[in-house]
Design brief:
heterodimer; A: mainly beta; 0% helix; B: mainly beta; 4-stranded antiparallel beta sheet; globular
């Protein structure tokens, strides 16, 4: 398995532009998570999905952020319009059910998408 | 709401020194606990995890962590650090009534030769 695949790896855009980040989870993982990493706030959970359904989006900072998972192998995180304060590394991760006794239930992270909004 | 606190934001050590990074969480129920590591320029990798059983957990590269339920703590330790341990370390917790893995703000470790 190629692991969790994110694209693009780097994105530089201007304020006001739309940004779309993409994620392909590990096949068979029915949980998908989007995190944002910044120096000031560390790793913040934005939203997570179970079986393609958004379960908790309380971490999404504003209405400018939206996430979709149209099928089990693809998810997008969209920022429209983007602002300089959105600059961060956005990580996608996937897993089997994270809570429980099974040693398999560990999040596997993608390499991240580094977003710079000028 | 559950939260995770890592009190050491930046730790600087010389090689062969001992390491202990603090992690406390706030949740009264059953939890699973994790330490992840992020080496410079790389993505997060699992260092070790606690699900149940022996509260002293051994992970990769000589790291271990001890779950002390009464103190809501899961401190990470290594008896002798190496320069290659330079990285950022994240403690994380997920409770049984939710599937949200919550991370601490991370501890940046620098090890000098």
């Amino acid at each position: 398995d190629a692991g969790v695949i994110q694209s693009p790896r780097h994105e530089v855009t201007e304020m006001g532009q739309e940004v779309t980040l993409r994620c392909k989870p590990i096949s068979g993982h029915d949980y998908l998570f989007w995190y944002r990493q910044t120096m000031m706030r560390g790793l913040e959970l934005l939203i997570y999905f179970n079986n393609n359904v958004p379960i908790d989006d309380s971490g999404m900072p504003e209405d400018r952020f939206s996430a979709k998972m149209p099928n089990a192998s693809f998810s997008t995180l969209k920022i429209q319009p983007s602002e300089p304060r959105d600059s961060a590394v956005y990580f996608c991760a996937s897993s089997l059910p994270p809570a429980g006794h099974s040693g398999a239930n560990v999040l596997t992270f993608g390499a991240g998408s580094r977003l710079t909004v000028l | 709401a559950q939260s995770v606190s890592q009190h050491n934001h930046h730790v600087i050590l010389s090689e062969a020194a001992s390491l202990e990074l603090g992690c406390n969480y706030s949740y009264g129920g059953t939890v699973n606990l994790f330490w992840y590591v992020q080496y410079p320029g790389q993505h997060l990798q699992l260092l070790l995890k606690y699900f149940s059983g022996d509260p002293l957990v051994k992970g990769i590269k000589g790291f271990e962590a001890e779950f002390i339920k009464s103190k809501f703590s899961f401190n990470l330790r290594k008896p002798s650090v190496q320069w290659s341990d330079t990285a950022e370390y994240f403690c994380a917790v997920v409770s049984y009534n939710t599937d949200k893995l919550i991370f601490g703000t991370g501890t940046r470790l620098q090890v000098f030769p």
